[in-house]
Amino acid sequence: MKNPQADSTRFYLLLILSLIPIIASSQSMVTVTGTVISEEDRSAMPGVSVTVNGTSNGTMTDEKGFYSLTADSKSVFSFSFIGYVRQEVPVNERKRIDVLLHPETQQIDEIVVIGYGTQSRKSLTSSIASVGTAEVQSIASVSLDQQIQGKAAGVQVIANTGIPGEGIYMRIRGTTSINASNEPLYVVDGVFVNSQSLQNIHTQGQLTNPMADISSSDIASIEILKDANATAIYGSRGANGVVLITTKRGKYKTQPSVRFNTSFGLARAPELWDLVTGPEHATIINEAWANDEKPFATRPFRPVSEGGRGLPEEQPTYDRLSTLFRTALLMKFDLSVTGGNENIRYFIGGDYTSQEATLDPVRFQRGGMRINMDAKLSKKVTLSSSNSLSRTFRNQARVGDGPNGGMLQAALHTPTYLPFVNSDGTPAKWAGFDNLDVLIKHTDIEASSYRYIGNMRLDFEIIKDLRFSSSWSIDFNDYDEFQYWNDLTNLGAASNGYGSDGDTKNMIWINEQTLDYRYHTGEHNFSFLAGNTIQKNSRQSKYIEGYGFPNNSFKLISSAATKTGSVTHSEIGLLSFFGRINYDFASKYFLSFNLRADASSKFGSDNKWGHFPSVGLGWQIKEESFLKNVSWLTNLKLRGSYGVTGNQGGIDEYASQGLWGGGYNYLDQPGIAPEQLGNPELKWESTTQSDLGFDISFVQNKINISFDLYSKYTSNLLLAVPMPSITGFNSIYRNEGEMSNKGFEFTLTTENISSRTFQWSTSLNIARNKNKIEVLPIPINQYNRDWVRMEQGYPMYSFWLYRQLYVDPQTGDAVFEDVNKDGSITVADRQILGDTWPDLFGGMTNNLRYGNFDLSIFFNFQIGNDVFNLNRFFLESGGRRDERRALHANQLNRWQNPGDITDVPRVTTTGNNYRLEQNSRFLENGSFLRLRSLSLGYSIPGSVLKAIRITSARVYFQGTNLWLLKEYIDPDPEINVAGNRQNVQGLDLGTPPQPRIFEFGINLTI
To answer: What burial letters (b/e) apply to 104-138, b meaning 16+ CB within 10 Å?
Structure first.
């Protein structure tokens, strides 16, 4: 007989046991919320897939990057988005999980910007390097072109000076011209922008950099087009490479997002020049006096009672360099708002930058705003606009070559034993240099630049896959500059004050139409592009000077007793037609063909048109059947290209025409005279380039390698050929000369570690370029004393010197190579002994992340380049200049006694020891390895930010130029005194070194 009570007990027991898993399960479920943001620009990421591992449970982030997902508290979430590293995060009973997604080191399906369009990297047949916004912003520089340094293979960037906003040297795959431009073309959102300085005021060899008008905080991406197949679509403007800059835009169907970034920092010169002390200076001068066998009793540094300057040990030491260089302040602010609805998207941003130079009182300031908008007027019509307005202010100084007004010259070259003031307390002037205190307090050189860069574009989809576009673009720059030198300065004392005022207006306007068609059938894919460009450049410059002012309170030129002025105006026009055909079969075989025809007003009527074709081929070997299933190989592509590009930049607007000028008056009658010989045969300079490269990736894109070999050959060089003086003309433009550039580029990117808590990636690029002047009618010497020489068979930027073999240990005299064996050292014994081209150059970046901490370390380097140290030339004078120059500490290594082994000869004012100015002793190894930037950041957890409604926040420290390894004896081998001369590189004289910068900042997204 059954027991009802027992049955009931068993029933309830089984019921309870069956509910235990359900109860336990319900107790372990948790609703997790959070935000997903991009590591690259700290913006919210909509559309990120968030799934629970091992289940079908999942969701997507909304327009603010927000998600909410209910799952087991012990489960693991997976976050994935195309182009980003997949992340798996254990829930661990948390209710808030915020994720920072990292871009993959390289994606073969990544979309890159090309000329007049975009293309997947997988189908590229060209050599194009991409630089992300995070990479450029990791370097504290006001010029975006300088921020590219070391980030792309084959792109050589050198700062001419350590002053913010000054010019730089940038070459993509070498130098192609002597008189025409060697600068790349910069295109900002489709606008061809001017990169040539508008400065007229002389600042001893340095020029301002117009690219400093553009804020890097606005940039979304940078693509650098290097080979002919990539640049030929730009024709005459692509010979030196193209830098495509895309600025930030909003996203459709996203809520407004506010981003605020700010930083504050300090800058110092990491190293200054090493000079002798006052007693050491006096000892060396007396020693030279004795070596010249002059009377001991009349030596310069003898007791004052004997009519001398005092004994060597009695001389004081004054440190002018520490007086001139300061701890500089810098600050940056930028604020932006992005968003959009179904039909309109927008980006509105403003920024302000203030950066003092380490050289007192120089500073740079920039304020600007940007408005980018896109509006879908209908399903087929979209109207887009990009607009930026900036105002840049510079407080400048004369740094470089020349004593008058030369601030660093006065500090560096004035002997250390000479006082700042005279015995009566007035400012002391020595050896032609200005008094340093006077220059610091009274240097008055200012420049203001107002610049608008804008583009309006209409896109119309005529039918499916057929799109017509029309755009109008403008780059307008009003550059105003002023200087005044009062009667306490050398420049002002001669005429009771000197001043000048200039204003230059430069405008580039462009109208373009393109027709783009894409066609697919089976495994065949075609794209066609046709277009035309109408471009006009105009420049007007007004410059006035004044001498003789009532007193130093009157600085306007209207107050001057004597006034002179000039006005210039020039225009050039360019008409172009271009086309491109891209074809791929089965995503394995790729063909690209480009053709552009340009007509320039600079050339004669029979040579206005230039035609620039290119062709590129690509083979995606990985897609072949014999490799498709090889799991460890992700990508293998072979590509090659050949093409022709032209050059007409940099030469005079009317180079082919005979010109007459006014102002050649006879008695009281106005007159004219010929100023330029015409050459109607003048035509385009052209560069042919071939490129062969491959791209290979391993282990799911964790290891990526790109390698390119290239050869460039430039013919019909646009050359200003010297004319005999009897003709009355200095030179005439002709097509004479040829030049070559050959080299390789290597890029390696690796994802070394990628775990939930720790990620580490590395990027390395190395390049080499070998330049050679193949044909040149006659050698051309450059710069004072002809230190630099262009000669057939040698590279550009070569040094023409006397070779010092050794210093005779017995006599202490320098021994030079007698090249022609005639028994004497003459100009015939000078030879090319070095150049500024490095054997290798590049950069390496390591990015690490642990939890919420991120660390980025970037080195750049050059190996094998030469620098001619003009500071040593002037400061190791062996007593020749006495009061006129300080003495370099290297002079202490001079020969003094028989048996001394050194390369610094005995001090003397006679013979060749110090009188042969082009001495190879001053040619130094300019190789360096620089810790260019180090950034350490911490992202504040979202759980902390949620209460104050902030999407993301990151605080960081950023250091620039923190360490430098070099053999160069002076502070910095990355320098050039002649930034205003494109054919001179690697001369160091009176230019401040790159500053060491420490910054602290915060990035906020709301």
So the answer is: bbbbbebebbbbbeebebbbbbbbbbbbbbbbbbb
Q: Are strands 254-268 and 328-340 parallel, antiparallel or unpaired?
A: antiparallel
Q: What is the dihedral of CA 872, 875, 878, 881, to 10 degrees?
A: 140
| Tokens 């090249």, located at residue | 819
Whole-number pLDDT of residue 860 = 95
Q: Say if residues 997 and 140 touch (Cβ distance below 8 Å).
A: yes
Q: State residue 789 phi and psi, 5-degree precision.
A: -140, 135
How far is residue 878's CA from residue 882's CA, in Å, rounded to a whole number? Answer: 9
What is the spatial distance between Cα 1001 and Cα 137, in angstroms, rounded to a whole number? 12
Q: What are phi and psi for residue 616, nearest 5 degrees?
A: -135, 145
User: What ranges make up the beta strands (E) of 586-602?
Assistant: 589-600
Between CA 997 and CA 143 the distance in angstroms is 15
Q: Sign of the CA dihedral 159, 164, 166, 172?
A: positive
Residue 906 DSSP one-character state: P
Segments in 188-251 forming alpha helices (H): 228-231
Q: Cα-flanking dihedrals φ and ψ of residue 948, to 5°? A: -105, 15
Quote the pLDDT of residue 447: 95
- For residues 31 and 68, give the distance between their C-alpha atoms in angstroms, rounded to a whole number: 7
CB atoms near residue 823 (< 10 Å): 6
| Other residues' Cβ atoms within 10 Å of the Cβ of residue 380 | 13
Residue ranges of the chain with per-residue pLDDT less than 50 = 1-2, 11-12, 15-17, 19-27
Q: What one-letter code names the amino acid at 801?
A: L
CA distance 440 to 428: 14
pLDDT at position 83, please?
66
> Tokens in use for 483?
């200087």
| Predicted local distance difference test score (pLDDT) of residue 315 | 95
The 3-state DSSP class for residue 534 equals strand
* 958 Cβ contact partners less than 8 Å away, ≥ 6 residues apart: 138, 140, 263, 265, 933, 934, 935, 936, 997, 998, 999, 1000, 1001
Q: Alpha-carbon distance 927 to 862, whole Å?
A: 5
Q: What angle do CA 673, 674, 677 make, to 5 degrees?
A: 175
State the CB neighbour count (10 A cutoff) for residue 900.
16
Q: Are strands 788-790 and 798-801 parallel, antiparallel or unpaired?
A: antiparallel
Beta strands at 111-114 and 117-120: parallel, antiparallel or unpaired? antiparallel
Write out the two tokens for 60: 């997507």
> Minimal CA–CA distance to 574: which of 830, 865, 234, 79?
234
* Tokens describing residue 705: 């390698």
- The pLDDT, as a whole number, for residue 10 is 56
CA angle in degrees (0–180, nearest 5) for 503-509-512: 170
How many C-beta atoms lie closer than 10 Å to residue 466's C-beta?
14
CB 116 within 8 A of CB 596: no
pLDDT at 17: 47
Rounded to an integer, what distance in angstroms lies between the CA atom of residue 687 and that of residue 182? 12
Backbone φ and ψ for 487, nearest 5 degrees, come out as -75, 0
Estimate to the nearest angstrom the gap between the alpha carbon of 1003 and the chain centroid: 24
Q: What residues are paired with 971 via a beta bridge? A: none
46 φ, ψ to 5°?
-75, 155
pLDDT single digits (tens) 454-487: 999 999 999 999 999 999 999 999 999 999 999 9
211 CB-contact burial (10 Å; exposed 0-12 / middle 13-18 / buried 19+): buried
Task: List alpha helices for 414-550, DSSP H.
Answer: 436-442, 490-493
Q: What is the pLDDT of residue 76?
A: 85
Query: Which residue in 988, 982, 987, 977 sits closest to 799, CA to CA?
Result: 987
Count of residues in the chain = 1006
Q: What is the rounded distance in angstroms from the CA atom of residue 272 to the CA atom of residue 358? A: 11
In this structure, are strands 589-600 and 562-585 parallel, antiparallel, or unpaired?
antiparallel
462: left (phi over 0), alpha (psi -120 to 50) or beta: alpha
How far apart CA 212 and CA 164 sit, in angstroms, is 9
